[in-house]
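User: Hey, my collaborator sent me this sequence without any context and asked if I could get a structure. I don't really work with proteins. Can you help?
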Amino acid sequence: MQNRLYPLFAVLAIAALVLSACGTPAPAANTGSDELSGTISISGAFALYPMMTVWAEEFQKIHPKVEFDVQGGGAGKGMTDTLAGAVDIGMISRAIKPEEESQGAYWVAVTKDAVLPIISADNPVKEQIQAKGISQEVFAKIFISQEIKTWGEVVGDPSITDEIHVYTRSDSAGAAEQWAKYAGGKAQDDLKGIGINGEPSMVDTVAKDPLGIGYSNLNSVFDMGSGNPVTGVQVPPIDINGNGQVDAGESYKVKAEIFSAVSQGTFPEPPARFEYLATKGKPTGLVKAFIEWILTDGQQYLESAGYVPLTAEQQAESLAKLK
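Assistant: No problem. I've predicted the 3D structure and written it out in structure-token form, which is a compact way to encode the shape of the chain:
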């Protein structure tokens, strides 16, 4: 009986050695690039929405078992959904408020961009504006105090009496908060004007109104392919130093110019700002893995989409919050 079993044991031993030499696949739960699975739900800022769709698509290429449900709706919706547990991640384009942190909001910065003033490409004084720019003081008198009511007042020509049509956001939006702070206010409610719901509607409304002025996120203003402003709108030069003329670095006719100003820190903050991802409580599991990827490999996709990557120090700071 023992003579019959010996060859069988020998065969099994040899097979074990072969498997050991080739390497036994590790359990999927421990390592590998395709072990992640599940659905990540995300809502919030229109400013981050285009970038998030890119991140989701690229992450899914690596982890095909992960599904995404990404929706816009504004920073306010993103935070409300996050705190209510309706989504896993909120896209937030403004500072996180203390009362939101007290309710469990946990956040990390993931990129940087800017809110820009926009006028119609058919504005009757666009040439004068391109030559003189618009100062922070003038923006304040248009959007906050409403002391300036005509385009003639903007360019210093009292013979021009065309009324300014001021547009602001009616939905809770990080862009509105940032623009309010730049214009001298403290919060979105300080902005005056006709309320427009949503980022796309704001751009479309101003584009169709020659007398209109509003504000919008960098990635809604410029076409990411051509780098030119989207059809119908222009970004007026910002007279940053208030000297009544457009100096170097104050005109943003193409995406590259504003991108350079934001990345080099020459564009005012606000309306330049960090963009955040928020979760209810410190993220874990699949959500944590996705955010960590955004802060590492995911940073490579930012510039081509018109966003400013974090510096190495900023990346490290955000990653440390996830540990």
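In plain terms: The chain has two domains: 38-112+274-322, 114-272. You can pass these tokens on to your collaborator as they are.
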